[in-house]
Design brief:
216 residues, mainly alpha, 2 domains, coiled coil, Methyl-accepting chemotaxis protein, transmembrane
């Protein structure tokens, strides 16, 4: 009776766990910056294969040399052939499993680097288009956390400068308006020309500051 009741519950629990894992893997895009990640992955696999080649040569060449140099029916050749077969049966499965493990680990490790770089690129592209984006965020466990903090500090500093520039431009515009409406001496052509020059340069500053869109 107990097994009859627990069976469907355990089956439903396992089904829910697998469903959650499949959903997690679907939501998680591990190759977010393929050029960088695949380049690092192939570099790591190349080093692993080179290491496996060197270790394999050190393990397989001595018994293989005995097989090649001694008589086929000699005791030494038989022992060397047996050792060679044992090495084949144990080395290649271990090397294959290690290669698979290193491949998976490399994908996960490069994901923690490529994800932040991808976010940096998006922020920089936004600034190239005249948009001061909101501070960037990284996922828990990502690398380059300190670099993102420094980048956000730079964004905030430039955002403050743009806002101060806009405020100074507004004050300059108000001062020029008050000056033009209150000073009778502005009938002087030279003085009016200078005021117009200041207003023109102020408008250039205003246009430059207005070209940036600040995300709130």
């Amino acid at each position: 009776m107990t097994n009859t009741v627990l069976g469907p519950k355990l089956s439903a629990q396992r089904s829910g766990e697998w469903t959650g894992l499949r959903g997690f893997l679907r939501r998680r895009q591990f190759l977010v910056y393929k050029h960088l990640q695949l380049g690092l992955l192939f570099f790591a696999l190349g080093e692993v294969l080179f290491f496996a080649f060197v270790v394999g040569a050190a393990l397989f060449l001595p018994p293989a040399a005995h097989v090649w140099t001694e008589a086929a029916d000699s005791r030494g050749a038989i022992d060397a052939a047996t050792q060679l077969l044992q090495l084949h049966s144990s080395f290649w499965p271990a090397a294959g499993l290690a290669l698979i493990a290193i491949t998976l680990h490399s994908i996960f490790a490069t994901h923690r680097v490529a994800g932040p770089i991808y976010r940096f690129r998006r922020l920089v592209r936004a600034m190239e288009q005249g948009v001061f984006p909101k501070p960037g965020t990284l996922r828990k466990g990502d690398y380059l956390q300190g670099e993102m903090d420094a980048f956000n500090a730079m964004l905030e500093a430039n955002r403050s400068r743009i806002l101060e520039l806009r405020e100074a431009r507004e004050q300059l515009r108000s001062a020029l308006t008050r000056l033009e409406s209150s000073e009778p001496g502005l009938e002087d052509p030279e003085l009016r020309r200078r005021i117009e020059d200041v207003a023109r340069e102020g408008k250039r500053v205003d246009d430059a500051a207005a070209a940036f869109v600040i995300e709130s």
